[in-house]
Specification:
Layout (H helix, E strand, L loop, with lengths): L6 H24 L28 H15 L2 H13 L14 H16 L2 H15 L2 E2 L4 E2 L14 E3 L6 H11 L2 H17 L10 E4 L6 E5 L11 H18 L2 H21 L20 H15 L4 H21 L28 H15 L7
Antiparallel strand pairs: 1-2, 3-4, 4-5
Helix pairs in contact: 1-2, 1-12, 2-3, 2-4, 2-12, 3-4, 4-5, 4-6, 6-7, 8-9, 8-10, 10-11, 10-12
């Protein structure tokens, strides 16, 4: 990867990682014991490590960021806090409703990474428990992994699946390889095939939520989810798709997954080039023209996913995707990063969902994927997937 990057790009990437290392050393020290999701008005991290929030789907990203920073710097503070985060997440295993399709987001960057580094048996056990729980959500009638549990209202989500789950499948692929048990991989492949058929539109845009009849597996309808409306193109969903299908190709070698990842990526690059040439990513590629809400998390995830695609391609075919990834990261570095020591977050202008009351704030997974992408380009990233 480093051989494909220009000297000038290497220079700013190295400088950005140096600034991140300096900042996050201070941030980790003043946030010991926390598992953050966002920041308060003063720019300091909140804490989701308590009983009320320990099952929150983003809780693995802080531990994952800490492990990447430990790899980058070798500083013990990052390792210590990563392990403490993993330990606290054990409480989630005792909450049925807290265990959902996002097991990969929580235990891949924490327990799987630690097991790969240290062969820690407790981390292996946690990751396998999470993988087994994820596999147990598979609906045989429709060949999909159910998304959320019941929400306590009148919505029946039994037959719902979401594009985000493509990013959780590597937990199943890993478990299959680790145990020599093909069941886990078979479930991952079946879900990926369903997602390819039912979530990816002909033009490469992506549905966020698809509802199936849980008894027959029949496709019923799609939902707007976190995007602008039904039929729109939620940018983070696009990023989960292009990244997730590239990962399924990585684990299976099946070309159809790589072609799907490239199809989604081609759509994204076309949208950026035609509508957002500054490469500052909106919340939805089909949001009204007079709305300029941004989601920096989508930019960071897209960039890291594009790099994953690059690693699957011959040099001649990879330039388009590498160039787009660097443009996304450069736009964030130059316009949407706070490298000061005053605030805990790095990325600014992150948005969870188009119709939320709050937009453009700090979100932990934005920082995680930004750091991951830069370290991939630098050749120093830990292998999470």
């Amino acid at each position: 990867m480093k051989n494909l990057i220009t000297a000038s790009d290497k220079e700013w990437i190295s400088e950005a990682l140096s600034r991140i290392a300096d900042k996050m050393t201070v941030v980790a020290q003043r946030n010991q014991g926390k598992i953050p999701y966002t920041t308060d008005e003063s720019g300091r991290f909140d804490d989701h490590s308590g009983k009320k929030d320990i099952c929150w789907w983003t809780n693995g990203f802080w531990g994952g960021e800490l492990w990447q920073l430990y790899k980058l710097t070798g500083k013990d503070i990052f390792k210590q806090e990563a392990i403490a985060t993993e330990d606290k997440m054990d409480a989630a295993f005792m909450d049925y409703n807290g265990m959902d399709h996002d097991a990969g987001f929580r235990w891949l960057p924490t327990s799987v990474v630690r097991y790969k580094m240290e062969k820690n048996p407790e981390s292996k056990n946690r990751a396998l428990l999470a993988a087994a729980n994820l596999a147990g959500r598979f609906n045989l009638n429709g060949n999909f992994i159910r998304a959320w549990n019941d929400w306590g209202d009148d919505r029946d989500t039994t037959g719902w699946a979401i594009i985000d789950c493509m990013m959780n499948l590597p937990l199943l692929y890993w478990a299959s390889e680790e145990l020599g048990d093909t069941r886990f991989k078979a479930i991952a492949v079946a879900h990926a095939d369903t997602a390819m058929k039912c979530f990816i539109r002909e033009d490469g845009s992506v549905r966020h939520i698809v509802g199936f009849d849980p008894a027959t597996g029949q496709y019923l309808r799609d939902y707007a989810g976190q995007g602008y409306k039904e039929g729109s193109s939620w940018t983070r969903g696009q990023s989960w798709a292009l990244y997730g299908f590239a990962l399924s190709y990585k684990y299976t070698g099946d070309e159809k997954y790589l072609k799907t990842a490239m199809k989604v990526a081609d759509y994204v690059i076309s949208e950026l080039d035609s509508k957002y040439p500054d490469y500052l990513v909106p919340v939805d590629y089909r949001q009204p023209a007079d709305v300029r809400l941004e989601d920096s998390t989508a930019a960071a995830i897209t960039a890291s996913g594009l790099i994953e695609i690059v690693e699957c391609l011959d040099k001649e075919l990879s330039h388009k995707y590498l160039d787009a990834a660097i443009r996304l990261l450069r736009a964030l570095n130059d316009n949407r990063c706070d490298y000061s020591l005053d605030k805990d977050n790095i990325l600014e202008k992150c948005t969870a969902a188009y119709h939320d009351a709050k937009h453009e704030f700090a979100i932990i997974y934005g920082d995680y994927y930004y750091i991951e992408a830069l370290m991939k380009l630098d050749g120093s990233a830990l292998t999470v997937f």
